[in-house]
Amino acid sequence: MGRLFLVNLEGKMYSCKHCSTHLALPEDIISRSFHCKHGKAYLFNKVVNVTVGAKEDRMMMTGLHTVVDIFCVGCGSILGWKYEAAHEKNQKYKEGKFILERFKVAGPNGNYYWTSTDAHVAGSDPDDA
Fold first, then answer.
1. Are 51 and 71 in contact, with CB atoms under 8 Å apart?
2. pLDDT digits (tens, 9 = 90+) for 39-68
3. Domains plus CATH for the chain?
């Protein structure tokens, strides 16, 4: 295995909850109104220091999407997913974008999002969908 090269972000950022690897900047958030099985999730335009899993089709609240899970390069934790393709015309804006589950990351101030026992479990799309 080769040497691990990480992208270091400057200023406030989102990082891996487990190993503090830098992931994304707040200015790259497109939407804060997404949900996943652990509660809130954010849609990002750009994320760094992740690897991707295998492509798979998933039926979500807003229709069928082709996605890949994304993993932290520092510790291997699953962080969310990347939209590879949206099969509904009105969902095409998600293609190439990333979902980070708030439960899996530390916020820009180093704070953690704690899920409640009432976590939303029905899907992984915006509240207003």
1. yes
2. 899 999 999 999 999 999 999 988 999 999
3. 14-106 (2.170.150.20)
